[in-house]
Amino acid sequence: MPHSTVICPMPQAGRELPRRRRCRAVLLLVPALAALAGCQGTNDLSAVGCLPLRVPAQVVLLQEAGLYWIGDAETPVLSAHPRDTTNDAFHRVQPLRTLPPGTRLGIDRLQQTWGFDSGKGRISAFGTVGPGGERFEYGWGAATTIGRAPWEPATVPRLRTVACPD
Q1: What tens digit of pLDDT does each residue of 85-129 get?
Q2: How far apart are CA 7 and CA 166, in angstroms?
Q3: Which position has the higher pLDDT, 54 or 24?
Q4: What is d(CA 148, CA 79) in angstroms, rounded to the nearest whole number?
Q5: Any idea what DSSP says for residue 146?
Q6: How many CA atoms are closer than 13 Å to the CA of 34, on its beta-carbon side?
């Protein structure tokens, strides 16, 4: 069987198109597919009820946590302690301050990112710390799994499955 090095599809019987026109048709599809691969967005989970928290909510830290700047992020990230600091330099993680147990947090938004090429992504809680109102993001989980938040008791499993709608 002869081998063809042409990247364009071969014409079907009764649908003969000039080779140049076939190649042009294929090349027009490439930007459309690239645009779809870049499609992404967020779903507001605040009122959906798929997470064990309704917002707006006031919660109290039950374990020590910290606020951290990561790279060029606009909002500091809340992270429970103890945490693995092995790759902090690589990820440009810088501690902002430590929050002791008993610190009050206001959670005002729950959301999940999604992408056409990656599906469901990060599940985040957004809120403020104490009366000063310092903003933060807490990465609660990804896809269909969340971890135990620092405001939840140790009786809550480390990982849970959630069923948030698409």
Answers
A1: 899 999 999 999 999 999 999 999 999 998 755 557 899 999 999
A2: 36
A3: 54
A4: 11
A5: E
A6: 6
The pair of three-digit structure tokens given for residue 81, joined into one six-digit string: 């302690």
pTM of the model: 0.72
Looking up tokens 């009366």, which residue turns up?
Answer: 131
Residue-wise pLDDT for 122-146, tens only, equals 999 999 998 889 999 999 999 899 9
Nearest to 70 by CA among 31, 26, 30, 122: 122
Distance CA 79, CA 52 (A): 18
87 by DSSP, 3-state: which? Answer: coil
How many angstroms separate the CA atoms of 152 and 52, rounded? 10
Q: What is the largest CA-CA distance in the chain?
A: 76
